[in-house]
Design goal:
Chains A, B: Specifically methylates the N3 position of the uracil ring of uridine 1498 (m3U1498) in 16S rRNA. Acts on the fully assembled 30S ribosomal subunit. The structure is a homodimer of 236-residue chains. Chain A is an alpha/beta fold and 236 residues long. Chain A contains six helices and ten strands, in the order βαββββαβαββαβαβα. Chain A has two domains: 58 residues, Ribosomal Protein L25, Chain P; 166 residues, SPOUT methyltransferase, trefoil knot domain (Alpha/beta knot, 3-Layer(aba) Sandwich). The first copy, chain A, is 32% helix and 24% strand. In chain A, strands 7-6-5-9-8-10 form a six-stranded parallel sheet, with helices on one face. The longest helix of chain A is centred in the middle third of the chain and has 21 residues. The interface between A and B is medium-sized, with 34 and 34 residues.
Chain lengths: 236, 236
């Protein structure tokens, strides 16, 4: 079943109209799922008249259980790594991605460049949310420096060398079903010591992601998987 | 520290000689790590004389604890998805990948095509093993049909809809440190019912990977992460 996200005015988006009519070649009475701007999804029956699409609601789809809220704080990567992170972290259930230019980020970005890229980034997230049957599209923002991160979280983790006192699973099992969780991954060059000091001041706990070295674009997927599996058990 | 894998004759590979001399521009007395064909790694000091490289061993690197052995059985994907799987599953610690042409695989492959591609696949795995500081490169093989899978495993999982009786974490916690584990992921089109029946006959247990639908090329990373986190705790 195809799923589409309505725009902020709760209308089918222009590109999706094209997708429904020209790509999927749907006809009147075909059914799709639509999700509104607050994450409520519906099964609807289409009514297609040349290039206009209207629909009538057949049923509300069950709202997913309210679970933990995960903010990925991702050190800015080079090339298409940021897009890779958006695509797959969305599939793995992230609720929000904050890209941060960190001391060892090879790529640089500023607010103006980010604003230009943001629309494309949100489209990638939306497509990924659609394919993975999520009810909502993650928010994507940018910080030019880690010191501007002024938020508080119930748990804040930073992917760093393992301290070997407790394991990742022990730490992640402290996360409760409705907690706000931050998970920070450094850029290709790693995290500068001054940044680690700042993170520790802000109660970030370092966690190791197994015995291998993971590349920056996939490190978050390890953390998101383990958090998801822990929460799945807690909420079952 | 750069890490290189010796060939089966325990010599530095030709491409690595080029990498050491021309790309990294290393000099006599520079140090690298080398891993032999049985996965033992050494810190060595280089001796470079124009285009020949020899080395003397400074120290044996600690052997990693013998852990579980994970075989990923991956439904053949289209385009560059197979290479994506090799690259990232290697980083996430897989020991062996068996590509299988399944009923709903869109791409087709035969033994001859696979043999042609295998060298390239192993190079991708080796590069990924090098970057993630693994001691060994995973084996990569191909089966033209699932019915030829005649191996036995201590635990065999297939990514499928969640049966909701037990959670993924409960099932994976049954894996012990030295177990042989198989993890099967279907192709884009999913797993045919006849294949699921065959898998169940062969004691494969279906597991759900969270509440979202993961694309075939990243589904294994969810499973590998959770298995790794569970084993990390058991062996700590």
């Amino acid at each position: 079943m195809q799923r589409y996200f309505l725009n902020k005015e709760n209308q089918i988006q222009k590109e999706d109209l094209h997708h429904i009519i020209k790509v999927m070649r749907m006809k009147t009475d075909d059914q799709i799922e639509i999700c509104d701007s607050v994450g409520q999804c519906f099964l609807v029956r289409l009514n297609i008249d040349s290039n206009t699409v209207s629909y009538e609601t057949i049923a509300s789809l069950p709202e997913p259980k309210k679970r933990h809220y995960i903010t990925l704080i991702q050190g800015l990567g080079k090339g298409d790594k940021n897009e890779f992170v958006i695509k797959y972290a969305t599939e793995f259930g992230v609720d929000e991605i904050i890209f941060v230019e960190m001391k060892r980020s090879i790529s640089k970005m500023d607010e103006t460049t980010f604003i230009k890229k943001r629309e494309r980034y949100l489209k990638i997230a939306e497509e990924s949310a659609r394919l993975s049957h999520r009810n909502s599209v993650p928010e994507i923002t940018f910080l030019p420096n880690l010191k501007y991160l002024k938020r508080t979280f119930d748990h804040a983790f930073v992917a760093y060398e393992n301290d070997r006192n407790t394991t990742l699973l022990d730490k992640i099992e402290l996360v409760e079903t409705s907690d706000k969780v931050a998970f920070l991954v450094g850029p290709e060059g790693g995290i500068d010591e001054s940044e680690m000091a700042l993170l520790k001041e802000n109660n970030f706990i370092s966690i190791g992601l197994g015995t291998r070295i993971l590349q920056t674009e996939v490190a978050c997927l390890y953390g998101l998987s383990v958090i998801d599996a822990v929460i799945e058990r807690k909420s079952s």
